[in-house]
Design a protein that fits this description.
The complex is a heterotetramer. Helices cover about 15% and strands about 25% of the residues of chain A. By secondary structure, chain A is an alpha+beta fold. In chain D, a hairpin with a 4-residue loop joins strand 2 and strand 3. Classes of the chains: A alpha+beta, B mainly alpha, C mainly alpha, D mainly alpha. Chains C and D meet through helix 3, strand 1, helix 4, helix 5 and helix 6 of C and helix 6, helix 7, strand 1, helix 8 and helix 9 of D.
Chain lengths: ~190, ~1100, ~260, ~400
């Protein structure tokens, strides 16, 4: 039978801890003289935990998948492209011209370097012509007329090692004026 | 600082500190817990495993490549390089000089170039200035213009100079290069040699699991550029339904199915198939020259896969047929079609369970449902009863084709689904179940017309037939409605069973009563005397057996003994017409006689065409068919109908609209016959006989079955599985009912009443779907189609076969399958069921695959409408029947052939007379190639040309005078060059063999022309050529030769055939129908057929 | 120990520390007072409290728990808003993605379970307050605030229930909101409302009754989703926050954390 | 084992009405326990009740089981007496309850429902309610002893002791936060938030349940029309809660646990909170299955289970059954009995104020008395209606279709 059930006894008044002030340590007050290990661990652990939670919030801000339009696409096989032709099949979808010469094949980004219009390929005159301000580019992408300050940019292009298909990656671009067109990633040898 | 003042506390601080410490540590711990929980995902394991597999495979490839590499050649090249370097060193002087020269010129070039560009810039600026000046009418504009002109001249000069400098620079460059060239070449060749190895090494590096790999994939850091990542494809025009609207699919299947779109991870089986296919393509020159090398490499790789120690399992496999699916060069590239658009399943899901995988069979279900266990390949399968788009199980994959290809009869590369749809059409599901898509609408009722049944057969036969059609014909498409599992099955209590039998007897009798009382009674003229033997001979030869089977027993595949035939024992097409066995028992001579003479006379929509039998022939055929008896069938006892049962059933229907008393009263007024007729009508409604048969009094009723148009999208919880889990099907197969939609449908088809097992239902509430006795294979095919009928939304440009060309073709193909042309012909590469009965290919009906390219459209039209206009191969005994096509139908067919055969490529024809010289040359060539051996060239009557007399049937060939009116001008030479490639197995010899090296054609006359035997011909030919060289050149040129031949053939062809005769109207013979009497039906007691006997 | 001490001293005496915690370590009564008074958050509390107010066994700490859970919900809720769009085309798939691919999609679990916990905590808080008779004068008004807060808590949870836009959600809300249809005089199926007419035109019908006001349509639909989103993320939290302020304020003014008066 | 399950299943079916019937009485028992003089009174009452149930029970199996359960419970209580409030006894009871729960989890059907992520918190709530009710009453019991002994409740004894907020209060608060965070995280890791398939207005799940905390209301909807159960009663609950401080004029028991000083307040409140609110939520969550049918905790939720719904209105009972005549066309006439009955029910307070409850009337004063008693009447309307439905399949007391006015 529990002690508190015995009748007619005033409920015990639990004494205040350390009211006697006998043992300071028992109160575990932070004193300048001693800083108990327990508290150190506690604070360090807490700090670490909060840090962890904070960094979780940080990570939370970087989604694992993106819903952006694809920058990188497979463009079929080399032989799908006729030598000496400017191929427009990807212009609609990805804004890319694939140009194949005897020696090399490269991907031109269909954005005029003047004010970002989309030029047209004029087969007859064998040049790209921008409708906005009449900038003209050779089939190599080098500008030769109109206000365009510099040649068209070329996108990264390479053969997929797995199935030998052409892969174009718009996220990597090469500027002629920076001499980047010599970069092996900017063209495919055919 | 003074010591702190002690104060009292409620709780001991020491305790609190301790709690604090512990809980703080706890918090730290669980924080780690979250990170772990978030990091550990099932798909990561799959990716990890795939990396391992890749490494393994690449190691293999590397080994293979290194074996292939040529050591000695390498050494050589290295030596060459060294040597060249030495020579350069030897002549250091010149080399350095050249170099310096070059540098200097480079400098100048740069300067010149700069000058030019700057000047040009100024010029542009000046131009603008000028324009402004002109525009603003400045006073100094003349001045500006002058400046501008000067400047532009200056620019031109600079440009000229630049060009000059460039020229010189290049010259020097060339000099320097001359030195370096050799080294460069050597290095290049070296690179080429090691290319393949370098490639493999590069790939290996890409999948190596080094420190960097672990850092990039570490928890919390794996957002920088992880190799473990979720791959997804967003499909903007293939929608998934979230009920309130259609949203684009986001497929993440690739996250686990890593290799799905990259070759090299095929299953061994697929690898074998593929390499065989590629090899075959190589051998037949279907692969362009520049791709052959690559193809050979691929085959080597596939071989390696087959030799690999262990099989690659899902989900790491490559998708089969990459050239058709998933591959970016294929018709369904991954980026545009994703996975779930065909396979179904939950897009977005990244866990096996949630992805909606569905087990194909009980075994897989048991395995999958186990908790995640890699070793046992248990992935934790969850069934979601609400998911409207669970994945199609393995055996139903091609269901995915239907939604986009719904308006196609044939789907290229979809043999399964094409066959499946054909099966559905044959069995006639569409008649009872509305399927609102192009493929299954506008089709004929599958069953024969019953408005004249009394002319055709007797009530006794009909009763027995309806009771169990399969007892009469084991291959019939007429399903069994009565005495089925839920009526008389073992599970049914004895008392109820007895009652059910009574009811079913009554219903059958009633239906027959109704049909016969409503039937027409035309009197058909009886046939004259016929010769059964000749009749048999005719039936076997004129092509009846293309559509009709004449046997009911076949040799068992496993055990040699004879067994009862099933539909699947014969080609689909041969089940088109009814099985001829017992036709004599079923019907009478008069009916047969008139039927074979002109089926359309019996009822206009009759599927059977007219074979233009003469009266005598018809009589013979009748004589034969009448002998096909099945007496034992008529011995089957007919139980007398229990009048009580009839009353009860009839009343059951009456009380729907009347009170009980009125119903009773009404019944009293009805004699038994009327009761039966009334019950018959109700029963026909109940079982929906009218859906398949024309029945008097049921015109324009809705089909009986549930609408299947979007059955494939019905959620699992909407299916009533009853209480069955597994059962023994009637053919002895032990079937399992999984808790999946496909399984439900499959078993519904296998045993339509199965879900009534152990159910307690009122007689009229029991399941009614009849039993088609489908084999497992048939059931699987039909299930595939049903699963494919979904409500998925698709972007317009994803729907197949919408362009007019294909539409025309498909419309035609629909006719082809409706009229069963494939019974005799090969259309689009398959068909010709009759081939199994005719040994000699010379007597087979033609292969129509190239018909569009081959035959001129006007001829085709004529011929289809009236095949008698021309006999091309008179020795063929199989007759092209008269289908009585309408002009529209004929046009559709012609259009189909034209589209399928790419006729437009051959239509640039000159139908005029070719120049005499060509003809002359052609004739010579014709002789040299000995074409006359087989082909007659003397004009004949196109409607009845004589059968050429030849040593062997091998050399039977059409008379060439019929070519001009029939064949397309440009098709002929093509055909002569490559007959075998157009029609494999044709008897036409290939005179122009392929050159194994180039794949081009070789002319047999190239050298032979010089041989003495052709001396005369050569002499004869000379006048037509400028020189002998010219002649020989021509003789070596297959194209030229064949065209000369064509011109010759053209020159001898007749130019006219008669127009098609108009469709002859059905011969109607219909005197006023006389009062019918139906013996033994008045009282419902059966005098005939053995009267009362113990029930089954 | 020694170096540990020096580290601690170094931290505590640094200017940064001092600038933040002006009082330093509250080891004297004066400092203890200042520590509480000087801090915005702490000065919710009085400087001294009755002992029973510190006793777990007396207070059950349920009021505090409720408040803390409210904070948890606020934080996790805010985070979820980064990945959630309240439209019928995205709502469900976004939640799906929280499970399938979003980093730390577990925030959703926290939010949902936190909501459940909060409801229970609030009930228990009320239970305790009643059992100690702490609604009696002078605390009547605060009890009323409390009751309203309880209602708001339920509404918060209720509005949040719809946002995943799955079967669970819309049917729970359908069932829940259908009651409004029967509001006497205001719901189209409520008693009397049939009598409210202009000529023979019913003024209360499915298109303008109480339920319509709640879900913004005749049936649950896009507008419902948006409405509940706004209520869930803005209106109710603000109201609750405001009332909480009053609640806490009154706790202090009406004699501190409850105990015998 | 199976018999036990069956027993509980059957019991749970009856327990709803039983609890509602007798929980008032149950509080009397508590009261007696608190008074310490359990045996005498309870003995008599539980024999009475027990026999009653057993007698009726032979006709109706659930009631028989109830009788048995009833014997057991009261027997235990009467034996325990005041020791019910002993810490160790309490602990044992708790452990016993947990053990029972754990054992039940072995049953697949029970597990299916109880382990549903959304139901877990409710399961936890059952225990929390039990524990805290026990703690509260225990403290009340102790204080009452003090008071009985002429002492003061211990809260008062310490009210002079003031402690510094820093560190005492803030420290404990911080600890609570940390621990709570841990709980939340562990909970979140352990249980996935449920997500079913996309919202589909055309196919409703079976059963379609409101959020769990409204399941009490949904349960009410079985017995009352929406306008009452969904609108009026909830409103009255809120109003009633807010009214409490103004109705309860008892100055005693302010700020400390005590039962003796506030029997009626506590009795009524516990009845409302535990039985009418919490218990109905639990019923709605665990015992209501497809088609809102009643299922015992160990029963399989079979969507095909059919239960006859043969409910009749009071008007039908009186006019058709008793008087054997057709229902009058005029609704005012048809429903006259019902309306009278309702009016009678509502006029109870003034009647009672005359004699039996006079002292309340005097003590509280008119307005308080009437507001309070009306609220109380509305509260009691629910259990009464439930019992009527249970025993006589009574659907409506007043059924005026014409204006959607049904009671």
């Amino acid at each position: 039978m529990a002690e508190e059930i015995t009748p007619f006894q005033v409920a015990p008044k639990t004494p205040l801890a350390g009211s006697a002030a006998a043992d300071i340590r028992d109160q575990g007050e932070i004193t300048r003289r001693s800083f108990p290990l327990v508290l150190t661990t506690a604070w360090v652990a807490l700090a670490a935990a909060l840090g962890g939670l904070a960094s979780i919030l940080g990570r939370f801000m970087f989604p694992n998948v993106l819903f952006e339009p694809v920058q990188k696409f497979k463009a079929g096989f080399l032989n799908d492209y006729t030598v000496g032709a400017v191929d427009e099949r990807w212009k609609e979808k990805y804004g890319i011209w694939l140009v194949r010469n005897e020696k090399v094949m490269y991907a031109l980004i269909a954005v005029c370097t003047h004010l970002g219009c989309t030029p047209n390929w004029l087969e007859s005159q064998n040049k790209f012509k921008c409708p906005c301000h009449g900038s003209g580019y050779y089939r190599t992408g080098v500008n030769f007329e109109g206000p365009a300050p510099r040649p068209l940019e070329r996108a990264k292009i390479f053969l997929d090692p797995a199935d030998g298909q052409i892969v174009v990656d718009k996220s990597v671009q090469f500027h002629q004026e920076r001499g980047e067109w010599t970069n092996p990633d900017s063209f495919i040898k055919t | 600082m003074k010591p702190q003042e002690p104060i009292p506390h409620n709780y001991s601080m020491a305790k609190l500190n301790l709690i604090f410490a512990v809980s703080a540590l706890g918090l730290l711990f669980v924080t780690g817990g979250i990170v772990l929980y978030d990091y550990v995902r099932g798909w990561k394991w799959f990716q990890w495993e795939f990396i391992r597999i890749q490494q393994e495979r690449l190691q293999q490839d590397l080994r293979a490549a290194q074996q292939g590499e040529n050591r000695t050649r390498m050494a050589q090249l290295d030596k060459q390089i060294k040597q060249q370097e030495l020579t350069i060193a030897a002549h250091r002087q010149q080399y350095v000089l050249a170099q310096r020269d070059l540098d200097q010129w480079e400098g100048q070039h740069y300067a010149a170039d700069e000058d030019y560009r700057f000047a040009k810039a100024n010029l542009d600026a000046k131009r603008y200035e000028l324009e402004m000046a002109v525009l603003q009418k400045r006073r100094d504009r003349a001045q500006t213009r002058k400046e501008y002109i000067d400047l532009s001249n200056h620019v031109d000069d600079l440009q000229l100079r630049l060009q000059a400098v460039t020229r010189d620079r290049d010259a020097v460059q060339a000099r320097v290069n001359a030195w370096l060239k050799k080294i460069k070449d050597a290095e290049d060749t070296r690179k080429q040699l090691t290319a393949s190895i370098d490639l493999v090494k590069k790939q290996l590096a890409a999948v190596s699991t080094n420190g960097q790999f672990f850092i990039l994939n570490a928890p919390m850091l794996d957002f920088i550029s992880p190799t473990f990542k979720i791959d997804q494809v967003v499909l903007p025009d293939l929608f998934v339904n979230v009920n309130y609207m259609e949203v684009p699919r986001v497929d993440r299947c690739q996250t686990c199915h890593r290799a799905i779109d990259q070759p090299g991870f095929e299953s061994k089986k697929e690898a074998a198939r593929l390499s065989a296919e590629l090899q075959q393509k190589l051998d037949t020159y279907q692969i362009p020259q520049n791709k052959r090398a690559a193809t050979e490499q691929r085959i080597a790789q596939l071989k390696r896969i087959q030799d690999a120690p262990q099989e690659i399992l899902n989900p790491w496999r490559t998708h089969p047929k990459l050239d058709l699916f998933v591959g970016s060069a294929s018709a369904h590239p991954l980026l545009e079609y994703g996975c779930t658009s065909c396979h179904h399943g939950m897009d977005r899901a990244t866990e096996f369970g949630r992805a909606g995988h569905v087990p194909p069979n009980a075994k897989m279900e048991r395995r999958w449902s186990g908790f995640w266990n890699v070793a046992k390949r248990q992935w934790g399968y969850e069934e979601n009863p609400f998911d409207e788009t669970p994945m199609y199980p393995r055996q139903y994959y091609e269901a995915g084709c239907v939604k986009c290809h719904a308006n196609q009869v044939q789907i290229k590369g979809g043999a399964q689904i094409t066959r499946a749809e054909a099966t559905v059409e044959l069995i006639g599901c569409y008649a009872c179940h509305k399927i609102a898509n192009w493929r299954f609408t506008g089709l004929r009722k599958p069953g024969p017309d019953l408005t004249g049944i009394a002319e055709k057969t007797t009530p006794e036969w009909a009763i027995r037939w309806i009771s169990e059609p399969h007892d009469f014909r084991s291959t019939t498409r007429m399903p069994s409605f009565f005495y089925q599992r839920n009526m008389v099955g073992p599970a049914v209590p004895a008392a109820e069973r007895a009652q059910n039998i009574k009811y079913q007897d009554a219903e059958i009798r009633a239906i027959v009563e109704y049909l016969f009382s409503k039937s027409k009674h035309r009197v058909w003229p009886a046939p004259g005397p016929g010769d059964a033997a000749r009749g048999k001979q005719l039936v076997n030869t004129i092509g009846c057996l293309g559509c009709h089977v004449d046997t009911e027993t076949v040799k068992g595949a496993t055990t040699g003994e004879m067994r009862l035939a099933r539909r699947t024992d014969f080609p689909l097409e041969r089940n088109y017409g009814f099985n001829l066995t017992g036709v004599g028992t079923k019907t009478n001579a008069a009916w047969i006689y008139n039927w074979v003479r002109n089926p359309k006379a019996y009822y206009p929509e009759a599927p059977m065409p007219s074979l233009r039998l003469s009266d005598q022939e018809a009589a013979d055929v009748t004589a034969y068919l009448v002998t096909l008896q099945k007496p034992q069938f008529m011995q089957k006892p007919i139980r007398p109908v229990d009048p009580e049962a009839v009353r009860e059933l009839a009343k059951g229907y009456l009380v729907n609209t009347r009170t009980d008393r009125d119903a009773e009263a009404k019944l009293k007024t009805m004699p038994m016959h009327e009761q039966l007729v009334y019950l018959g009508q109700r029963s026909i409604e109940k079982y929906g006989c009218y859906s398949c048969h024309n029945i008097d009094g049921f015109e324009g009723l809705k089909p009986i079955g549930t609408d299947l148009t979007i059955e494939g999208s019905k959620a699992l919880h909407l299916f009533d599985f009853g209480f069955v889990h597994d059962y023994k099907a009637e053919d002895g197969v032990h079937e399992h009912v999984l808790h999946t939609v496909p399984s439900w449908i499959y078993n519904k088809l296998r045993s339509p009443r199965i879900y009534d097992d152990l159910r307690t239902k009122a007689y009229n509430d029991k399941l009614k779907m009849p039993n088609f006795h489908l084999t497992p294979e048939e059931a699987r095919l039909v299930t595939t189609v049903v699963l494919g009928l979904t409500k998925d939304q698709i972007g317009a440009d994803k729907i197949a076969a919408t362009d007019p060309q294909t539409r025309a073709a498909q419309e035609g193909l629909k006719l082809v399958s409706q009229h069963n042309c494939r019974a005799c012909h090969i259309v689009d590469g398959y068909g010709r069921a009759i081939a199994s009965l005719i040994s000699d290919t010379n007597f087979l009906p033609p292969d129509l695959t190239p018909e569009g390219a081959r035959a001129q459209s006007p001829f085709l039209f004529n011929f289809l409408k009236d095949p008698t206009v021309m006999k091309i191969r008179p020795w063929v005994s199989v007759r092209m029947p008269t289908f009585q096509f309408t002009d529209a139908e004929a046009n559709t067919l012609v259009g189909m052939f034209a589209a399928e055969g790419k006729a437009h490529e051959f239509d640039n024809a000159v139908y005029s007379m070719p120049p005499a010289s060509n003809v002359a040359v052609g004739r010579e060539v014709f002789n040299m190639l000995r074409c006359a051996q087989c082909h007659a060239t003397t004009p004949v009557n196109p409607e009845a040309p004589p059968v050429p007399k030849t040593a062997s049937t091998q050399s039977l060939a059409p008379n060439l005078t019929l070519a001009r009116v029939r064949l397309r001008h440009d098709w002929i030479p093509d055909w002569i060059r490559r007959p075998n490639e157009m029609i494999p197995g044709t008897r036409m010899p290939a005179n122009f063999p392929r050159d194994p090296a180039t794949g081009g054609f070789i002319s047999p006359l190239a050298n032979a022309i010089d041989s003495p035997q052709f001396a005369k011909s050569k002499a004869a030919l000379m006048p037509y050529f400028k020189s002998e060289a010219d002649l020989k050149r021509t003789m070596a040129d297959p194209v030229a030769l064949t065209e000369y031949l064509r011109d010759y053939i053209w020159s001898i062809g007749i130019t006219q055939i008669r127009a098609a005769a108009p469709n002859q109207a059905p011969a109607v013979i219909a005197p006023p129908s006389m009062p019918k009497q139906l013996p033994a039906m008045k009282t419902g007691r059966a005098e005939q057929g053995g009267g009362v006997t113990a029930g089954r | 120990m020694a170096n540990l001490k020096s580290v601690q001293e170094g931290i505590v005496n640094s200017q940064i520390w001092k600038s933040v915690f002006r009082v330093g370590i509250p080891n004297t009564n004066r400092k203890r007072v200042l520590a509480v008074l000087g801090s915005l958050i702490l000065h919710l509390h009085p400087v001294k409290v009755r002992r029973s107010g510190v006793r777990m066994s007396y207070t059950w700490c349920m009021g505090g728990t409720s408040f803390f859970l409210f904070l948890v919900e606020t934080v996790t809720g805010l985070l979820l808003m980064f990945y959630y769009r309240p439209t019928i085309e995205y709502a469900f798939t976004d939640i799906l993605d929280l499970r399938e691919q979003a980093p730390f999609g577990i925030m959703r679990e926290m939010h949902r379970w936190g909501a459940h916990a909060m409801v229970i905590a609030v009930w228990l808080h009320m239970f305790r307050v009643f059992m100690t008779g702490s609604y009696k004068p002078p605390r009547e008004f605060n009890w009323n605030i409390g009751v309203i807060l309880l209602v708001l808590t339920l509404l918060l949870s209720f509005t949040g229930y719809l946002l995943p836009w799955d079967q669970l959600a819309i049917w729970a809300i359908t069932v829940g909101s259908n009651m409004a249809r029967a509001t006497p005089g205001a719901g189209n199926e409520g008693p009397m409302s049939g009598l409210i007419k202009l000529g023979d035109i019913r003024l209360i019908h499915a298109g303008d009754d109480a339920r319509f006001a709640l879900i913004g349509g005749r049936s649950i639909g896009p507008s419902t989703l948006l409405r509940f989103y706004v209520l869930h993320c803005m209106v109710i939290p603000l109201a609750a926050g405001f009332l909480m302020a009053i609640h806490f304020w009154r706790v202090r003014k009406d004699g501190g954390i409850s105990g015998p008066l | 084992m199976t018999f036990l399950k069956d027993f509980i299943n059957t019991l749970s079916a009856a327990s709803t009405s039983f609890l509602l019937l007798t929980s008032v009485f149950a509080f009397v028992v508590f009261f007696n326990l608190l008074e310490g003089k359990i045996r005498s009174k309870v003995g008599a009452i539980f024999i009475a009740f027990g026999t009653l149930f057993v007698v009726v029970g032979f006709a109706v199996r659930p009631l028989l089981y109830l009788g048995i359960a009833y014997f057991v419970i009261l027997f235990m209580l009467s034996n325990l007496g005041g020791r019910l409030w002993d810490k160790r006894v309490g602990l044992r009871l708790l452990i016993g309850a947990l053990a029972a729960f754990g054992l039940s989890m072995l049953d697949p059907n029970f597990f299916l429902i109880a382990a549903k992520p959304d139901n877990v918190p409710i399961g936890a709530m059952i225990f929390l309610l039990g524990i805290f009710t026990w703690i509260a009453l225990r403290k009340a019991y102790l204080n009452d002893r003090q008071l009985a002994a002429g002492g003061i409740p211990w809260e008062k004894t310490e009210s002079d002791e003031k402690l510094f907020t820093w560190p005492d209060l803030v420290y404990t608060e911080m600890l609570c936060m940390i621990l709570l965070t841990i709980v939340m995280i562990v909970w979140s890791i352990a249980l996935r938030a449920p997500l079913e398939e996309a919202a589909n207005p055309t196919s409703s799940p079976n059963p379609a349940k409101a959020p769990w905390y409204f399941l009490g209301l949904q349960e009410m909807l079985v017995y009352f029309d929406p306008w009452l159960a969904g609108v009026v009663l909830p409103t009255l609950i809120i109003v009633g809660l807010m009214a409490i401080p103004y109705i309860d004029t008892n100055p005693k028991g302010n700020g400390y646990y005590s039962f003796r000083e506030r029997k009626w307040e506590i009795g009524v409140f516990l009845y409302g909170f535990l039985v009418l609110w919490s218990f109905l939520i639990i019923t709605g969550t665990f015992l209501r299955g497809p088609n809102w049918n009643f299922f015992g905790p160990f029963e399989y939720w079979d969507p095909n289970k059919l239960v006859p719904l043969v409910n009749v209105d009071l008007s039908e009972i009186i006019w058709v059954k008793l008087l054997g005549m057709p229902l009058p066309k005029l609704w005012i006439l048809r429903e006259s009995f019902g309306i009278l009955l309702v009016l009678a029910y509502l006029s109870l307070p003034p009647l009672l104020a005359a004699k039996p409850f006079r002292r309340f009337y005097l003590k509280m004063g008119g307005p308080r008395y009437y507001v309070g008693s009306f609220l109380f009447l509305f509260m009691m309307a629910l259990p009464i209606k439930m019992v009527l439905r249970w025993l006589f399949n009574l659907k409506y007391i007043v059924h005026i279709q014409e204006i959607f006015f049904n009671i």
